[in-house]
TrEMBL record:
Higher taxonomy: Eukaryota, Viridiplantae, Streptophyta, Embryophyta, Tracheophyta
Domain of life, per lineage: Eukaryota
Protein name as annotated: Uncharacterized protein
Region forming the signal peptide: none
GO MF entries: O-methyltransferase activity; S-adenosylmethionine-dependent methyltransferase activity
Species assigned in the record: Populus tomentosa
Swiss-Prot/TrEMBL keywords: Methyltransferase, S-adenosyl-L-methionine, Transferase
Gene Ontology annotations of biological process type: methylation
InterPro entries: Cation-dep_OMT, SAM_O-MeTrfase
Pfam families in alphabetical order: Methyltransf_3
Record keyword Nucleotide-binding present: no
S-adenosyl-L-methionine among keywords: yes
Length: 310
Protein backbone atom coordinates (compact mmCIF):
# COMPACT_ATOMS: atom_id res chain seq x y z
CA UNK A 1 0.00 0.00 0.00
CA UNK A 2 3.97 -2.93 1.13
CA UNK A 3 3.65 -1.14 1.24
CA UNK A 4 2.63 0.07 2.59
CA UNK A 5 -1.42 4.13 0.76
CA UNK A 6 -5.68 7.47 -0.44
CA UNK A 7 -6.53 5.38 1.36
CA UNK A 8 -4.92 3.09 -0.62
CA UNK A 9 -4.40 0.05 1.05
CA UNK A 10 -7.10 0.19 3.23
CA UNK A 11 -10.07 -0.93 3.97
CA UNK A 12 -10.31 2.05 6.04
CA UNK A 13 -13.54 0.52 7.05
CA UNK A 14 -12.33 -2.81 8.12
CA UNK A 15 -8.86 -2.17 9.12
CA UNK A 16 -8.80 1.13 10.64
CA UNK A 17 -6.64 0.00 13.37
CA UNK A 18 -4.60 -2.72 11.90
CA UNK A 19 -2.49 -1.27 9.21
CA UNK A 20 -1.50 2.19 8.14
CA UNK A 21 -1.67 4.66 5.39
CA UNK A 22 -1.75 8.41 5.43
CA UNK A 23 -3.88 10.67 3.33
CA UNK A 24 -2.60 14.12 2.98
CA UNK A 25 -4.86 16.88 1.79
CA UNK A 26 -4.09 20.53 1.44
CA UNK A 27 -3.13 22.46 -1.57
CA UNK A 28 -2.43 18.98 -2.72
CA UNK A 29 -3.80 15.72 -1.51
CA UNK A 30 -1.32 13.08 -0.62
CA UNK A 31 -2.04 9.72 0.75
CA UNK A 32 0.53 7.70 2.50
CA UNK A 33 -0.11 4.12 3.23
CA UNK A 34 1.78 1.22 4.48
CA UNK A 35 1.70 -2.03 6.21
CA UNK A 36 0.92 -1.74 9.81
CA UNK A 37 0.55 -3.56 12.98
CA UNK A 38 -0.31 -7.13 12.38
CA UNK A 39 -2.35 -9.63 14.18
CA UNK A 40 0.62 -11.65 15.28
CA UNK A 41 3.01 -8.83 15.82
CA UNK A 42 4.17 -10.04 19.20
CA UNK A 43 5.44 -13.25 17.60
CA UNK A 44 7.31 -11.47 14.87
CA UNK A 45 8.74 -8.97 17.24
CA UNK A 46 9.95 -11.69 19.49
CA UNK A 47 11.79 -13.29 16.62
CA UNK A 48 13.18 -9.97 15.52
CA UNK A 49 14.16 -8.90 19.02
CA UNK A 50 11.99 -5.83 18.94
CA UNK A 51 10.69 -4.21 22.00
CA UNK A 52 6.97 -3.89 22.04
CA UNK A 53 4.02 -6.16 22.13
CA UNK A 54 0.28 -5.90 22.21
CA UNK A 55 -1.26 -5.35 25.58
CA UNK A 56 -3.62 -8.27 25.18
CA UNK A 57 -1.83 -11.28 23.76
CA UNK A 58 -3.93 -13.44 21.51
CA UNK A 59 -4.32 -16.98 22.77
CA UNK A 60 -5.19 -18.20 19.31
CA UNK A 61 -3.74 -15.92 16.66
CA UNK A 62 -5.31 -17.83 13.80
CA UNK A 63 -8.88 -17.61 14.92
CA UNK A 64 -9.83 -14.98 17.41
CA UNK A 65 -9.45 -11.28 17.12
CA UNK A 66 -8.22 -9.77 20.35
CA UNK A 67 -8.49 -6.36 21.89
CA UNK A 68 -5.34 -4.34 21.45
CA UNK A 69 -6.56 -1.05 22.86
CA UNK A 70 -9.49 -0.32 25.04
CA UNK A 71 -8.93 2.58 27.37
CA UNK A 72 -9.24 6.32 27.69
CA UNK A 73 -6.11 6.96 25.69
CA UNK A 74 -7.94 5.54 22.68
CA UNK A 75 -11.25 7.22 23.46
CA UNK A 76 -12.49 4.03 25.08
CA UNK A 77 -12.87 2.55 21.65
CA UNK A 78 -12.27 -1.14 21.45
CA UNK A 79 -9.69 -1.75 18.75
CA UNK A 80 -9.26 -5.34 17.72
CA UNK A 81 -6.48 -7.22 16.02
CA UNK A 82 -6.60 -8.57 12.52
CA UNK A 83 -6.42 -12.35 12.39
CA UNK A 84 -5.97 -14.65 9.38
CA UNK A 85 -9.62 -15.57 9.61
CA UNK A 86 -10.69 -11.96 9.68
CA UNK A 87 -8.32 -11.11 6.87
CA UNK A 88 -9.70 -14.00 4.81
CA UNK A 89 -13.12 -12.54 5.41
CA UNK A 90 -11.92 -9.16 4.14
CA UNK A 91 -10.41 -10.79 1.06
CA UNK A 92 -13.62 -12.69 0.44
CA UNK A 93 -15.28 -9.28 0.15
CA UNK A 94 -12.89 -7.96 -2.48
CA UNK A 95 -14.08 -7.83 -6.07
CA UNK A 96 -10.83 -8.89 -7.69
CA UNK A 97 -11.02 -8.87 -11.49
CA UNK A 98 -10.18 -12.24 -13.07
CA UNK A 99 -7.14 -10.82 -14.88
CA UNK A 100 -5.70 -9.55 -11.60
CA UNK A 101 -6.27 -12.96 -10.03
CA UNK A 102 -4.34 -14.56 -12.89
CA UNK A 103 -1.49 -12.09 -12.52
CA UNK A 104 -1.39 -12.64 -8.77
CA UNK A 105 -1.23 -16.39 -9.26
CA UNK A 106 1.51 -16.17 -11.89
CA UNK A 107 3.52 -13.82 -9.70
CA UNK A 108 3.16 -16.07 -6.64
CA UNK A 109 5.91 -18.38 -7.87
CA UNK A 110 8.27 -15.53 -8.71
CA UNK A 111 11.03 -14.08 -6.59
CA UNK A 112 9.80 -11.10 -4.61
CA UNK A 113 6.14 -12.00 -5.03
CA UNK A 114 5.45 -10.85 -1.51
CA UNK A 115 6.11 -7.30 -2.69
CA UNK A 116 2.86 -7.23 -4.60
CA UNK A 117 0.05 -5.21 -3.09
CA UNK A 118 -2.83 -7.31 -1.84
CA UNK A 119 -6.23 -7.48 -3.57
CA UNK A 120 -7.90 -5.28 -0.98
CA UNK A 121 -5.12 -2.71 -1.28
CA UNK A 122 -5.36 -2.71 -5.06
CA UNK A 123 -9.10 -2.29 -4.84
CA UNK A 124 -8.64 0.73 -2.64
CA UNK A 125 -6.11 2.28 -5.05
CA UNK A 126 -8.53 1.76 -7.92
CA UNK A 127 -11.36 3.30 -5.96
CA UNK A 128 -9.29 6.37 -5.12
CA UNK A 129 -8.46 6.83 -8.77
CA UNK A 130 -12.15 6.58 -9.63
CA UNK A 131 -13.23 8.97 -6.89
CA UNK A 132 -10.64 11.44 -8.07
CA UNK A 133 -11.73 11.04 -11.69
CA UNK A 134 -8.03 10.72 -12.48
CA UNK A 135 -6.91 10.89 -16.10
CA UNK A 136 -3.16 11.05 -15.59
CA UNK A 137 -1.46 8.79 -13.06
CA UNK A 138 2.07 7.77 -12.12
CA UNK A 139 3.26 4.61 -10.40
CA UNK A 140 6.78 4.20 -9.04
CA UNK A 141 7.64 0.53 -8.51
CA UNK A 142 5.61 -1.63 -10.87
CA UNK A 143 7.13 -5.07 -10.23
CA UNK A 144 4.89 -7.48 -12.22
CA UNK A 145 2.13 -4.92 -12.49
CA UNK A 146 -0.58 -5.84 -10.01
CA UNK A 147 -1.23 -2.38 -8.57
CA UNK A 148 -0.70 -0.64 -11.92
CA UNK A 149 -3.09 -3.01 -13.67
CA UNK A 150 -5.71 -2.42 -10.97
CA UNK A 151 -5.42 1.30 -11.68
CA UNK A 152 -5.28 0.96 -15.47
CA UNK A 153 -8.42 -1.18 -15.47
CA UNK A 154 -10.49 1.65 -14.00
CA UNK A 155 -8.99 4.47 -16.04
CA UNK A 156 -10.99 5.75 -19.01
CA UNK A 157 -9.61 4.92 -22.47
CA UNK A 158 -8.23 8.40 -22.96
CA UNK A 159 -6.32 8.29 -19.66
CA UNK A 160 -2.69 7.46 -19.04
CA UNK A 161 -0.68 5.74 -16.34
CA UNK A 162 3.09 6.29 -16.39
CA UNK A 163 4.46 3.04 -14.94
CA UNK A 164 8.09 3.28 -13.74
CA UNK A 165 10.20 0.22 -12.94
CA UNK A 166 13.92 -0.47 -12.98
CA UNK A 167 13.70 -4.26 -13.33
CA UNK A 168 13.24 -5.30 -16.96
CA UNK A 169 12.31 -8.89 -16.17
CA UNK A 170 9.36 -8.09 -13.94
CA UNK A 171 8.27 -5.39 -16.39
CA UNK A 172 7.91 -8.07 -19.07
CA UNK A 173 5.28 -9.80 -16.95
CA UNK A 174 3.53 -6.49 -16.35
CA UNK A 175 3.46 -5.68 -20.07
CA UNK A 176 2.08 -9.12 -20.88
CA UNK A 177 -0.82 -8.53 -18.49
CA UNK A 178 -1.50 -5.02 -19.76
CA UNK A 179 -1.89 -6.66 -23.18
CA UNK A 180 -4.07 -9.48 -21.91
CA UNK A 181 -6.27 -7.00 -20.06
CA UNK A 182 -6.55 -4.73 -23.09
CA UNK A 183 -5.15 -1.71 -21.25
CA UNK A 184 -1.74 -1.33 -22.96
CA UNK A 185 -2.88 1.82 -24.70
CA UNK A 186 -3.38 3.45 -21.28
CA UNK A 187 -0.02 2.47 -19.79
CA UNK A 188 3.20 4.29 -20.64
CA UNK A 189 5.85 1.87 -19.39
CA UNK A 190 9.12 3.54 -18.37
CA UNK A 191 12.07 1.29 -17.68
CA UNK A 192 14.57 3.08 -15.45
CA UNK A 193 15.20 4.67 -12.11
CA UNK A 194 12.10 6.30 -10.70
CA UNK A 195 13.68 9.61 -9.69
CA UNK A 196 15.30 10.03 -13.10
CA UNK A 197 12.00 9.38 -14.84
CA UNK A 198 10.20 11.94 -12.65
CA UNK A 199 12.89 14.52 -13.40
CA UNK A 200 12.53 13.88 -17.12
CA UNK A 201 8.75 14.35 -16.89
CA UNK A 202 9.32 17.71 -15.22
CA UNK A 203 11.88 18.72 -17.86
CA UNK A 204 9.32 17.66 -20.44
CA UNK A 205 6.95 20.34 -19.14
CA UNK A 206 4.52 17.97 -17.42
CA UNK A 207 4.44 19.75 -14.05
CA UNK A 208 1.01 19.99 -12.42
CA UNK A 209 -0.49 17.70 -15.06
CA UNK A 210 -0.97 14.51 -13.02
CA UNK A 211 -3.93 13.66 -10.82
CA UNK A 212 -2.69 10.65 -8.91
CA UNK A 213 0.58 8.97 -7.96
CA UNK A 214 1.35 5.72 -6.18
CA UNK A 215 4.83 5.37 -4.70
CA UNK A 216 6.03 1.81 -4.11
CA UNK A 217 9.72 1.78 -5.10
CA UNK A 218 12.89 2.43 -3.08
CA UNK A 219 11.75 3.47 0.39
CA UNK A 220 14.82 5.57 1.18
CA UNK A 221 14.02 7.70 -1.83
CA UNK A 222 10.52 8.60 -0.64
CA UNK A 223 11.41 12.17 0.28
CA UNK A 224 12.92 12.81 -3.13
CA UNK A 225 10.01 11.10 -4.90
CA UNK A 226 7.61 13.18 -2.84
CA UNK A 227 9.26 16.50 -3.74
CA UNK A 228 9.32 15.61 -7.43
CA UNK A 229 5.73 14.43 -7.33
CA UNK A 230 4.64 17.64 -5.66
CA UNK A 231 5.77 19.34 -8.84
CA UNK A 232 4.08 16.84 -11.13
CA UNK A 233 0.77 16.29 -9.33
CA UNK A 234 -1.80 19.04 -9.57
CA UNK A 235 -3.31 20.89 -6.64
CA UNK A 236 -5.97 18.66 -5.09
CA UNK A 237 -4.39 15.60 -6.63
CA UNK A 238 -3.50 12.57 -4.54
CA UNK A 239 -0.17 10.91 -3.79
CA UNK A 240 -0.24 7.53 -2.08
CA UNK A 241 2.94 6.29 -0.46
CA UNK A 242 3.32 2.66 0.46
CA UNK A 243 4.85 1.10 3.55
CA UNK A 244 4.94 4.12 5.81
CA UNK A 245 4.77 1.93 8.92
CA UNK A 246 7.51 -0.33 7.62
CA UNK A 247 5.98 -3.35 9.28
CA UNK A 248 5.63 -1.55 12.57
CA UNK A 249 9.34 -0.75 12.87
CA UNK A 250 8.84 3.02 12.64
CA UNK A 251 7.13 2.97 16.04
CA UNK A 252 9.92 1.05 17.75
CA UNK A 253 12.65 3.34 19.10
CA UNK A 254 15.03 0.38 19.27
CA UNK A 255 14.89 -0.19 15.53
CA UNK A 256 17.28 2.20 13.85
CA UNK A 257 18.44 0.61 10.63
CA UNK A 258 18.89 3.02 7.72
CA UNK A 259 15.62 2.22 6.00
CA UNK A 260 13.52 2.48 9.15
CA UNK A 261 15.16 5.77 10.12
CA UNK A 262 14.57 7.11 6.65
CA UNK A 263 10.88 6.19 6.63
CA UNK A 264 10.40 7.53 10.15
CA UNK A 265 12.02 10.79 9.14
CA UNK A 266 9.89 10.99 6.01
CA UNK A 267 6.71 10.45 8.03
CA UNK A 268 7.74 13.23 10.41
CA UNK A 269 8.44 15.60 7.54
CA UNK A 270 5.07 14.88 5.96
CA UNK A 271 3.33 15.32 9.27
CA UNK A 272 4.84 18.81 9.55
CA UNK A 273 4.46 19.75 5.90
CA UNK A 274 1.88 22.56 5.51
CA UNK A 275 1.72 22.06 1.74
CA UNK A 276 -0.35 18.92 2.06
CA UNK A 277 -3.18 17.36 3.98
CA UNK A 278 -2.52 13.87 5.22
CA UNK A 279 -4.10 10.66 6.40
CA UNK A 280 -2.18 7.62 7.55
CA UNK A 281 -4.15 4.45 6.98
CA UNK A 282 -3.44 0.97 8.24
CA UNK A 283 -3.64 -1.88 5.80
CA UNK A 284 -2.41 -5.41 5.56
CA UNK A 285 -0.54 -7.33 2.94
CA UNK A 286 -1.41 -10.96 2.53
CA UNK A 287 1.01 -13.62 3.58
CA UNK A 288 1.94 -16.25 1.08
CA UNK A 289 0.71 -19.77 1.04
CA UNK A 290 4.17 -21.15 0.44
CA UNK A 291 5.66 -19.82 3.63
CA UNK A 292 6.92 -22.33 6.18
CA UNK A 293 4.23 -23.28 8.63
CA UNK A 294 5.90 -21.59 11.56
CA UNK A 295 5.90 -18.26 9.81
CA UNK A 296 3.12 -15.99 10.89
CA UNK A 297 1.27 -13.15 9.34
CA UNK A 298 3.78 -10.65 10.43
CA UNK A 299 6.81 -12.77 9.80
CA UNK A 300 5.69 -12.94 6.21
CA UNK A 301 5.51 -9.22 6.26
CA UNK A 302 8.94 -9.00 7.75
CA UNK A 303 10.23 -10.97 4.79
CA UNK A 304 8.54 -8.53 2.53
CA UNK A 305 10.61 -5.79 4.06
CA UNK A 306 13.77 -7.69 3.21
CA UNK A 307 12.55 -8.28 -0.30
CA UNK A 308 12.14 -4.59 -0.91
CA UNK A 309 15.48 -3.69 0.54
CA UNK A 310 16.70 -3.05 -2.88
C1 LIG B 1 7.16 -3.28 -3.72
S1 LIG B 1 7.60 -3.61 -5.36
C2 LIG B 1 6.27 -2.93 -6.26
C3 LIG B 1 5.03 -3.78 -6.18
C4 LIG B 1 3.94 -3.34 -7.13
N1 LIG B 1 3.48 -2.01 -6.80
C5 LIG B 1 2.83 -4.35 -7.12
O1 LIG B 1 1.82 -4.12 -6.47
O2 LIG B 1 2.99 -5.43 -7.69
C6 LIG B 1 8.89 -2.46 -5.60
C7 LIG B 1 9.41 -2.40 -7.03
O3 LIG B 1 10.14 -1.18 -7.13
C8 LIG B 1 11.24 -1.41 -7.97
N2 LIG B 1 12.24 -0.39 -7.64
C9 LIG B 1 13.00 -0.30 -6.53
N3 LIG B 1 13.77 0.79 -6.58
C10 LIG B 1 13.48 1.42 -7.75
C11 LIG B 1 13.95 2.60 -8.38
N4 LIG B 1 14.87 3.36 -7.78
N5 LIG B 1 13.44 2.94 -9.58
C12 LIG B 1 12.49 2.17 -10.17
N6 LIG B 1 12.01 1.03 -9.63
C13 LIG B 1 12.49 0.66 -8.44
C14 LIG B 1 11.69 -2.81 -7.66
O4 LIG B 1 12.41 -3.36 -8.75
C15 LIG B 1 10.37 -3.51 -7.41
O5 LIG B 1 9.90 -4.15 -8.57
Amino acid sequence: MASNSVLYRCSLLSYQYTSAATIIVGRRTVAISGNGFRACKPIRLARNCCSYSCSYPNPNPNDSAFVVANDEKYGNKQNISLTPRLYDYILSNVREPEILRQLREETASMRGSQMQVSPDQAQLLAMLVQILGAKRCIELGVYTGYSSLAVALVLPDSACLVACERDAKSLEVAKKYYELAGVSHKVDVKHGMAADILKSLILNGESCSYDFAFVDAEKRMNQEYFELLLQLVRVDGVIVIDNVLWHGKVADPLVNDAKTVSIRSFNKNIMEDPRVSISMVSTYRRWHDNLPEEMTFSQADSDFSKAVTD
